């Protein structure tokens, strides 16, 4: 049973793009320290939902509320894999530091530099700190995005299929780190994924989007049969 306070409340949320309903009447309460997996077939609306939660999109109906107040919730967002121009001039260290300076480099305080060093270490990027980010591999870039999201010490982390391009060992390392932060610092996690075994291994709750509605519950209730039905009907 969850005993922590709610930090995110979706009430009767609906989103329709012109002529194209995506989700409807979605009500969800996320408590501090929860680890949710958001699952469902391609194009069902998972990223749209995350963008609505981030206030990048306005819902057609319903509300997104942060409790007890928007200022109390700091969100880290790790997007789906995005390539970076090989000529992009920043090193991995500088790229991670961007989130501390409001994207004005290179003026990091000593404390901020220490924080970047710490997160480089935690995400296993120490050795690559001075490599231009444009020359990093896909998985290394993805780790750098995670490090960038974590450097500000968010209390809500949104992972939008951010582990999809990683090899199994790196995937496990990064999700183990997120799990440690979830357990020790009550980091709340929304993990958008197509990887059901990974969802089962790491999260406590699931939200499944289907073309016909949404379903939520304890992760143990997310049976293969349910996934199959959700993705095929
Ligand atoms: N700005 C937009 N305008 C119109 N339609 C959009 C817009 N953004 C997304 N869509 C459509 O909304 C639907 C949901 O897209 P979304 O990216 O949220 O799906 P998803 O579940 O994240 O998919 P995937 O698993 O493939 O990443 C898709 O049909 C998409 O084409």
Number of strands: 9
Percent helix? 25-40%
Mean pLDDT equals: 88
Cα Rg: 18 Å
Question: Termini separation (Å)?
Answer: 32 Å
Strand content: 25-35%
What does this structure look like?
The chain is of the alpha/beta class and 233 residues long. The chain has one domain: Rossmann fold (3-Layer(aba) Sandwich), CATH 3.40.50. 32% of the residues lie in helices and 26% in strands. It has seven helices and nine strands, in the order E-E-E-H-E-E-H-H-H-E-H-E-H-E-E-H. The strands form two sheets. A six-stranded mixed beta sheet has the order 5-6-7-3-8-9, with helices on both faces. Helix 3 packs across helix 4. The chain starts with 5 loop residues before the first strand and ends with a helix. The mean pLDDT is 88. InterPro entries: AAA+_ATPase, ABC_transporter-like_ATP-bd, Metal_Ion_Import_ABC, P-loop_NTPase. Keywords: ATP-binding, Nucleotide-binding, Transport. GO terms for molecular function: ATP binding; ATP hydrolysis activity. It comes from Levilactobacillus spicheri DSM 15429.
What keywords describe this structure?
binds adenosine-5'-triphosphate; 6-stranded mixed sheet; 26% strand; alpha/beta; globular; 3-stranded antiparallel sheet; 233 residues; single chain; Rossmann fold; 32% helix
